[in-house]
Design goal:
mainly alpha; flat; 0% strand; single chain
Length: 65
């Protein structure tokens, strides 16, 4: 159960972005624009969380300038 809960942090944003992209096929142009922005943000969130989990890649607070 812990493994499913742990990987949900990475897969739920990606699944949410897929839902946003599919939903954008059935709505008006303004909502499509907003759903595409939301989908892109969710993809970035999920992928960067996966990269951080991959090991020693750091995060936004690791390399301060």
């Amino acid at each position: 159960m812990r493994a499913v809960k742990g990987t949900g942090r990475y897969w739920l944003p990606l699944l949410g972005s897929a839902v946003c992209l599919i939903a954008s096929l059935f709505v008006g142009p303004v909502l499509v624009w907003l759903l595409l922005i939301l989908a892109f943000g969710l993809i970035l969130d999920g992928v960067t969380a996966m990269w951080e989990r991959a090991g020693s890649t750091g995060n936004l607070t690791t390399y301060r300038q």
